[in-house]
Amino acid sequence: MRWIRLITVATLALTLTACATSPTGRQQLTLMSDAQLNEMGQEAFSQYQQDLPQAGQAYQRYAQCIAEALIEVLPERERDQDWQILVFESEQANAFALPGGYMGINTGLLRVAQNQDQVAAVVGHEIGHVLARHANERVSTQTSTQLALSVLGSAAGMQGPGGEQLMGALGLGAQYGILLPFSRRHETEADIIGVRLMADAGFDPRASLELWENMSAEGGARPPAWMSTHPSHGQRTQVLESEIPGALARYEEARGAGRQPNCPRP
Questions:
Q1: Which of 232, 249, 254, 220 minimizes the C-alpha distance to 73?
Q2: Taking the chain, what is the end-to-end CA distance rounded to the nearest angstrom?
Q3: Which of 46, 128, 148, 261 is the Cys-Cys partner for 190 at CB 3.0 to 4.6 Å?
Q4: Which family does it belong to (predicted)?
Q5: How would DSSP label each residue in 74-118?
Q6: pLDDT digits 0-9 by tens, 172-184
Q7: What is the CB-side half-sphere exposure of residue 144 using CA atoms within 13 A?
Q8: Which of these is catalytic: 126, 137, 189, 243?
Q9: Are strands 84-88 and 102-106 parallel, antiparallel or unpaired?
């Protein structure tokens, strides 16, 4: 049982030295520095710009208008980050956010998101990933999981075909038991942060449900929720519906304070 103690000590050491709290109050493991991740985000964003052409200026102004309204209501520290958003020519209905405040939306997603409120749901969700430092947590979780499996393999003397087969099974267990659930948890948390953020900015939070209905209609066959990096449509809808009453109160308050975005759709 010595290897169990080794894994426990290693995991405890990582937890004690790299604890953080997400915007929703969830405990996180964050091993990477913000500077490291921001540099990686910048490199990935540059590569994306090389791989896909940018959409026309009307699309860029539309996305920028929506993003600026959302960024305006962020806490000061996050608001002062160098946020950048670009629209790319691609039929794939996709959007992404990278550490450092780099965001991208494909024209295929703007086809699915039918108005500024639905686009705000997408951009708010992506900003939520950045605010919650999900990239850091994801990398940190993968690193600590690989460390634990490596310690287990060495300490237990798992050599030869039999050992490799068992390590493969343990790796699969880690994938479905740890890594994918973390990703689903991140998506749910980004949904919660995003719907609150869009409401604070004066976008109708009910549009988040409309957006995911549109996304669901676009999608084909999906793997079971436990094998997916995203929550199922029903799980996502349930979370958003539970957030709507509070978000509507925030929305009415924002509108009363004069936050009424008007971003013309191209």
A1: 254
A2: 64
A3: 128
A4: Belongs to the peptidase M48 family.
A5: S-HHHHTS--EEEEE--SS--EEEETTTEEEEEHHHHHHS-SHHH
A6: 444 444 444 457 7
A7: 25
A8: 126
A9: parallel
Q: Compute the residue count for the chain.
A: 266
Amino acid at 251: Y
For 37-93, write each residue's pLDDT tens digit: 788 788 888 888 898 899 999 999 999 999 999 999 998 888 888 899 999 999 988
Q: How many CB atoms lie within 10 A of CB 62?
A: 20
- When pLDDT is cut at 50, 70 and 90, the band that residue 1 belongs to is very low
Inter-residue contact 231 to 186 (CB < 8 Å): no
Q: Yes or no: say if 131 and 79 are a contact pair by the CB < 8 Å rule.
A: no
Q: What is the reported pTM?
A: 0.73
Concerning whether 72 is annotated as a catalytic residue, the answer is no
Q: In whole angstroms, what is the distance from residue 73 CA to residue 168 CA? A: 46
